[in-house]
From TrEMBL:
InterPro entries per UniProt: UPF0311
Family: Belongs to the UPF0311 family.
Protein name: UPF0311 protein ABIG07_003548
Coiled coil: none
HAMAP family: UPF0311
């Protein structure tokens, strides 16, 4: 018997609108930043809106590797509330990461930005989100983060 191969299927896209960055400063392990999530949308096999609360809590390490942990929720078009915890990392050439920090455009293909979202909901139609592993491929823009969510099969 062989181990099953890993495959992924695209499921939906989360576009999270973001607010002004709050910086807590150097904490000894890096610079702590908090980025409010102020809305957005979900499109694809699930559609709805990102609720206007939550945040992405980041640590920027001395080598510019960014550890990310976002906590927020979205509401589906049929009224289900889905809580999201999304952990990941963003890394790339220092000059491009600094451009992103200043809100300047950078080709997303030049930045490694991957996440592992976990979902929680009490709505029966979306319980399957809690029964699978998902990975995200993300892009940071000046006013939003776009995450293509793929189900690991």
């Amino acid at each position: 018997m062989t181990t099953p191969t890993l495959e992924t299927n695209y499921v939906f896209t989360i576009t999270a609108k973001i607010g002004e960055v709050v910086t807590a400063g150097e904490t000894g392990i890096g610079v702590r930043r908090i980025i409010p999530i102020i809305g957005g949308e979900v499109t694809g096999a699930i559609s709805g809106k990102v609720l206007p609360f939550g945040a992405d809590f980041q640590t920027i390490r001395p080598n510019e590797l960014i550890d990310l942990e976002a906590k927020y929720a979205f509401e589906t078009d049929d009224g289900a509330i889905v809580y999201v915890e999304n952990k990941g990392m963003r890394f790339g050439p220092v000059e491009l990461l600094q451009k992103l920090k200043r809100g300047e455009p950078v080709d997303p293909k030049l930045i490694y930005f991957r996440t592992v979202p976990r979902f929680e909901t009490g709505h029966e139609n979306y319980r399957w989100l809690m029964q699978h592993i998902f990975v995200g491929s993300a892009a940071r823009h000046a006013d939003r983060v776009v995450i293509d969510v793929h189900q690991v099969m």
